[in-house]
Amino acid sequence: QELTTTAPETKRAATTTLRLTRISLMTDLEAELTAGGDEQSQAIVDFAAVVEGIRGDGERVVMNTVEESALLVAIVPALRRIGDTDATEALLCTGLSGLVNLAGFGAAHAVFTAGGLDLFLELLASPHPNVQFYAVAGIENLMSNK
Predict the structure, then answer these.
(1) Helix H or strand E segment including 114
(2) CB under 8 Å to 83, separation ≥6 — which residues?
(3) Is 63 exposed, middle or buried, given 0-12, 13-18 or 19+ CB atoms closer than 10 A?
(4) SS3 of 115, please?
(5) What confidence tens digit (pLDDT) does each residue in 83-93 have?
(6) pTM beyond 0.85, yes or no
């Protein structure tokens, strides 16, 4: 489980984490969406494509790219609509992983404004430990970077 920590990191370590997150998102999506095609799945694909397309290093680049794309306006509601079932757990975790990492790497305000905190709070009650993990990590990153 990929997670950007809120503890101070060197720029190089943070950049490596973001690159691994991009690779992980795209790899996970290829595996999870072969039978997809619905609106929620497409929102996650679009989200991963924007994250994958971030060029440059540093929090400012990430924040600007996220804000310019307006992707969070689509991804947070899509994750909420996916639902938290056994069949959707992996897809939900893929999207949550990206949100958690963005919140920890410069886009906490954008994730918060898009409703990320409410989503994370709702998902604390998930029956799935992996979903709970991302919910807790997302709240931690939002509160640490707010």
Answers:
(1) none
(2) 92
(3) middle
(4) coil
(5) 778 878 888 88
(6) no
Q: Which of 67, 71, 55 is nearest to 106 (CA)?
A: 67
pLDDT range class, residue 116, cuts 50, 70, 90: very high
Rounded Cα distance, 84 and 92, in Å: 7
Number of Cβ within a 10 Å radius of residue 17: 18
- Mean of all residue pLDDT scores within the chain: 74
From CA 41, how far away is CA 5, in angstroms rounded? 27
Nearest-angstrom CA–CA distance, 125 and 122:
6
Assigned token pair, 29:
């999506």
Tokens of 58: 């540093």
